[in-house]
């Protein structure tokens, strides 16, 4: 599918004057109560609700947005990455709406405007990785299905959200019609072999340091200038837009993991890579891999792909050798083929899979 991308030379102006007003006209913000979903998963609810942003394709089309397809294709549930937030995906939501998809994006627990279990605005802590999975599945089964309105329900997720999404696909094989995993955290990059990281982090948590910040990680400083050298090769316009969103909202300033988050990320990885779990997937998957990824392990993505395929399900891996972890933050030369590939996959006849 041909996609008209936003121009990078006037990106901020287009976002402010065209994209954001159009998104606001079809946006409903709400709170999802995960209590029932967590209890069904055998978890004790921690309390609090999760913030979400839902964009209605029919309302978007009614605004007569240029290039809108005016043909409703279903709903995409969006699952963001570690220390991210739903609003970061404004541009991707714009493209999805133009193509005829409603979008429901949740702030995962401990992120954005959702419930938190720590007083540190920058730290992310979670007691059990299964809570993320129960929350996303419950959200998709209710709010997502509501916006799908009888049409297909799809999953688009990035990084941590991709690891959570993979677990949802394993535990709820009939929930989504198709899934896109973008640089998924099948296993996190810890700076050391996972066989060493697991017992070390487990020991630190056992010593009562689970809520402590991982060594070397700092708070987000909204007064510090953006260092574009942190992401060499990314789109400067997109990086500046993400940075401004984070600086302008204290809820968006999550920036560092607690040891317990790392422990649970490693447990999630082990569960997702279990051969019997991979074999249980039925949803067709498109997995994107970033050649210059420093946040997640590509080798784990390769094993996941092999095991899902070995279990008899359709999975296609697309690798962008020159892309950083966030493919959606790259210049148009990479973003264009990425977005087009997503739509080609979602619209491909089932018989062709």
Automatic annotation (TrEMBL):
Origin: domain of life: Bacteria
Ranges of residues in domain Serine aminopeptidase S33: 73-328
InterPro entries xrefs: AB_hydrolase_fold, Hydrolase_4, MAG_DAG_Lipase
Pfam family membership, one: Hydrolase_4
PANTHER family: PHOSPHOLIPASE-RELATED
UniProt name for this protein: Lysophospholipase
Taxonomic source organism: Bifidobacterium erythrocebi
Lineage of producing organism: Bacteria, Bacillati, Actinomycetota, Actinomycetes, Bifidobacteriales
């Amino acid at each position: 599918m041909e996609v008209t991308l936003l121009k990078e030379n006037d990106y901020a102006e287009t976002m402010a004057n065209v994209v954001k007003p159009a998104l606001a006209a079809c946006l409903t913000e709400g709170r999802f109560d995960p209590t029932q979903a967590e209890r069904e998963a055998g978890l004790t609810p921690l309390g609090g609700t999760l913030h979400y942003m839902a964009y209605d394709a029919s309302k978007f089309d009614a605004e007569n947005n240029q290039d809108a397809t005016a043909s409703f294709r279903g709903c995409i549930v969006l699952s963001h990455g570690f220390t991210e937030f739903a609003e970061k995906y404004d541009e991707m939501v714009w493209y999805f709406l133009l193509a005829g998809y409603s979008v429901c994006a949740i702030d995962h627990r401990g992120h954005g405007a959702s419930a938190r279990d720590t007083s540190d605005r920058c730290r992310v802590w979670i007691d059990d990785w299964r809570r993320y999975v129960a929350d996303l599945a419950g959200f998709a089964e209710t709010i997502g299905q509501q916006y799908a309105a009888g049409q297909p329900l799809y999953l688009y997720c990035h990084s941590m959200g991709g690891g959570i999404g993979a677990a949802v696909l394993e535990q709820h094989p009939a929930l989504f019609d198709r899934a896109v995993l973008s640089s998924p955290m099948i296993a996190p990059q810890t700076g050391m072999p996972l066989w060493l990281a697991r017992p070390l982090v487990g020991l630190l948590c056992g010593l009562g340091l689970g809520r402590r910040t991982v060594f070397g990680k700092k708070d987000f400083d909204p007064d510090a200038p953006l260092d574009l050298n942190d992401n060499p090769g990314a789109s400067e316009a997109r990086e500046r837009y993400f940075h401004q969103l984070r600086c302008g909202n204290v809820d968006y300033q999550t920036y560092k993991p607690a040891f317990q988050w790392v422990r649970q990320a490693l447990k999630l990885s082990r569960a997702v890579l279990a051969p019997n779990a991979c074999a249980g997937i039925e949803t067709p998957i498109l997995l994107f891999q970033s050649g210059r990824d420093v946040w997640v392990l590509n080798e784990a993505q390769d094993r996941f792909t092999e095991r899902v395929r070995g279990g008899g399900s359709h999975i296609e891996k697309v690798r962008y050798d020159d892309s950083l972890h966030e493919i959606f933050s790259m210049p148009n030369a990479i973003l264009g083929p990425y977005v087009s590939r997503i739509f080609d996959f979602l619209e491909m006849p089932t018989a062709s899979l």
